[in-house]
Specification:
This protein has 355 residues and is α/β, with parallel strands linked by helices. The chain has 14 helices and 14 strands.
Length: 355
């Protein structure tokens, strides 16, 4: 019997692209699968506008509807659809879950591990996208691109530009401090070297040799903060990294330095950062992520009224190439699963061994 696979497609990765990835990457194993596609739209009536539900977050789709659809399938492939306890209780034949995200926060990983169901993810699928965006944010903030655009559009350029044209640094020969030197951090280092920047890196889990391979210098966090002209955060959110950049850490930064964050808002103490920006104890910040999102849902958000910050609504990761790259990664692991081989990207492998 063929393996029965349910794929939740969406407007970011439609059915046609999923099918292309499966055909391109699965080889002969493609013929052993019976694919069913369900198109899940963000404006679907099942949209749940809540920050979390039973341990999962950043999703769209009704968990009960997802569970009902998954009932008779062996494999469930999602991108933003929620995979909750209801899915595991309903889909008794479920053998594998794949999520096209680096960190599948929309999947109940613990529930899957208890049932010995592997969870495939796509680590690094957005590394190039986030690295590109990081450098874009840096340029946008230091060269006042967004402020200049808005000032020209509303006719206030001559007056408003007097406030922020006092300092316009170049990137050449400046020092960028990369906090977190994983797949994204290394890509940022590559791009920074293209701007002739000096690279410092802090990551307790990465060797000095690897950092040197990317033209960087391994240092402690305090030294990085003290020496860097730009500090960019690329750490995964954990209890240990929550508010790891607080008042003390920000106080170590140069008054001319900029803080950039494209990881998760919770990594930075927002109260401390706001105070630093108001007091001008650092030159500015560029943020794609906040503790409370989406930022545009709150017109009274205090950061919106500062003139030394560039912000975007969590846009660093998505790109057409990134979505398809992740689909190809899943297709390759699905083929390995069918061949009985070790899958490359099983995020709960250790938990499965212990269960």
């Amino acid at each position: 019997m063929p393996l029965k696979v349910l794929v939740f497609a969406d407007k970011f990765l439609p059915r046609e692209q999923w099918e292309m990835a499966f055909k391109e990457k699965m080889g002969e194993e493609y013929k052993k699968v019976e694919f069913t596609f369900y198109n899940l739209e963000e404006d679907d009536p099942s949209w749940i506008g809540r920050p979390s539900y039973k341990g999962v977050k950043e999703f769209f789709g009704n968990p009960l509807m997802i569970a009902k659809q998954a009932e008779k399938f062996d494999v469930l492939i999602v991108q933003f659809a929620p995979v909750t306890e209801e899915v595991y209780e309903t889909a008794k034949n479920l053998k594998l879950v794949a999520c096209n995200r680096s960190t599948p926060v929309n999947v109940d990983v613990e529930g899957a591990s208890k049932r010995k169901i592997p969870i495939i993810n796509t680590p690094g699928r957005n590394a190039d996208s986030v690295a590109d965006f990081t450098m874009g944010l840096i340029l946008c903030e230091v060269r006042h691109i967004a402020r200049a655009f808005e000032a020209v559009r509303n006719g206030t350029y001559l007056e408003s530009s007097k406030r922020w044209r006092k300092s316009i640094p170049e990137l050449k020969d400046k020092t960028i401090g990369i906090v977190g030197f994983g797949k994204i951090g290394t890509k940022v280092a590559e791009r920074a070297k293209g701007f002739s920047m000096k690279v410092l890196a802090y990551d307790p889990f990465v060797s000095e040799e690897k950092i040197r391979q990317y033209g960087g210098e391994k240092v402690g966090l305090d030294e990085l903060l003290t020496r860097s002209d730009f500090v960019t955060i690329h750490m995964r959110l954990t209890p240990q990294t929550t508010k790891m950049i607080g008042k003390r850490e920000i106080s170590l930064m140069k008054k001319t330095a900029f803080l950039i964050n494209t990881s998760r808002g919770e990594v930075i103490d927002e109260d401390a950062l706001y105070e630093a920006l108001v007091d001008k104890s650092i030159a500015g910040a560029a943020l794609d992520v906040f503790v409370k999102e989406p930022i545009y849902s709150d017109p009274n958000n205090r950061f919106l009224h500062l003139d030394n910050i560039t912000f975007t609504p969590h846009l660093a990761g998505p790109s057409d190439d990134m979505f398809y790259r992740g689909a190809c990664m899943i297709a390759e692991d699905l083929a390995r699963f069918l061949r009985g081989e070790r899958m490359e990207n099983v995020m709960n492998r250790d938990a499965l061994k212990q269960s």
